[in-house]
## 1
Amino acid sequence: MFSVKGLVESNDLRSVPSNYIWSTNPEDPILHETENVPTIDFSQLISSNPCEQSMAVQKLGDACRDWGFFMLINHGMPETLRREFLRSSQNFFDMSEEEKKEYAGGNICDPINCGTSFNVTVDKKLFWRDYLKCLVHPQFQAPSKPLGFSETSEEYVTKCREIIQQLLKGISKSLGQEENFIHERMNVESGSQLLVINFYPACPNPELVMGLPAHTDHGLLTLLTQNELGGLQIQYNGQWIPVNPLPNSFLINTGDHLEILTNGKIKSVIHRVLVNNKGARISVATAQGPPLEAVVSPAPELVGDDNPAAYRAITYRDYLTIQKSNELDGKSCLDRIRI
């Protein structure tokens, strides 16, 4: 079966096939319901009022260092565009299996890649997840079907890129650097932007499966939105915390390459996705990274005798290949390049 959605719809599925069942880990951290991630007001971050902007930059820096996740409000993305893109994403997954197979890439780094699980060639157990991945910058790539999908995608990811670039300026200032510090070090203007649309069908036994196991994201920042069904959890102080986004907000998380660049001052945080039996969850992530051929290493400005370089230099492309060629094992891919 090409997709989980196809599996669910092929018959009256009453139980989960054995190749999707995950064993429960008795050492799983305790779930903590009362915490929630910080909230950043984007309008304050780009305010012309120096005092207001300075306070927002400090709050942004604290969120990146302490949590690695934050909710972004007043971001300027029209709610109509966000909702339209979620509808377009649903329409893509509603296409027939044969139509979706047209976009099944033969290589994990293909500019358009539609598939299921994470990497079915190495996954020991399959994940309850279908996906579409598109490299949308520096050259925009997207499926031509369904009607209107490509146009809506391009408008959406362009706006996301503008938001992420402003956030990177704020993070640069929070590190005590010039606002274009990350832009220049990572050549952000020519950098890679990856669009990932995840589809998690309703599952008859959600406690037995995993949408995505514990992992970290590559790149600098990931901007995430979703439909009304939750499922994302982040690891904070050794506990799993469910994320409940505010209406019309984005969830932002720091990526592995921001941790490398800052030599660990900012951490890329482990997170996972659970599924439910109520309905399909759709999430849309846009990950901003450097150009594929860029060599990423700790910035000299953030390395010193008391803080030696903690990661070896590696090209962004090689890092992606390492991550995508191995199974998600509950650890950060950063472990493979630590000094």
## 2
Amino acid sequence: MKTEIRRRGAFGKIVKWTFILFNLLMLVWMLSTCASAGEMMNQAQNDAEHVGAAIGATVASGVQLFIWMAGVVVLGAMVLFTRGKKLIVEEIVQ
């Protein structure tokens, strides 16, 4: 039986945890934006305020989504490139 093992170095581990923490931070930021947008829409007193809040929330979410995806591409590539070398371990099964 063959098993593939990859071991990251110290820099690779830092990059991997940065990627994970970035995604968690962006998720919290997106959820807080959605919550505040809902609160703004509930506090709107007329149709113009309601429409303005909806447009503002859409633009803010779009910008956040763009930042998130750009960060995922850059950090994801770094995580991919900092993987350890492939080591194949062979075990004899009886």
## 3
Amino acid sequence: MTTLRTFHGTPVLMCADEGAAIGEREALDLIGDAGYQGARWVAVPAGRLHEDFFRLRTGLAGEIVQKFANYRLGLAVVGDVSARTAASASLRDFVRECDRGRQTWFVADETELAERLTP
């Protein structure tokens, strides 16, 4: 289930905390849903992402991030990923690089997402 919310004039498609794991196919469904609803960002709970997303060698994170970039949609991973980044230097670097840009962010909660979307 998804809901459309607006933070500082930016429409964000919010994914529910509960539900199936989000892999490549589900990401494409979210992109389509976001386009239909006029969202500019999609917020996905970290716990909903398929485990392979956090294992960079699988390529799933890159595939999903690239699909969002191709459709000019922002992707916000919402939730605590500190245990995962502590266990993987490459994931820690990936998160840090994503957070420097304007395409993909890893945020602790909706409040941090709203702050980042402040014009």
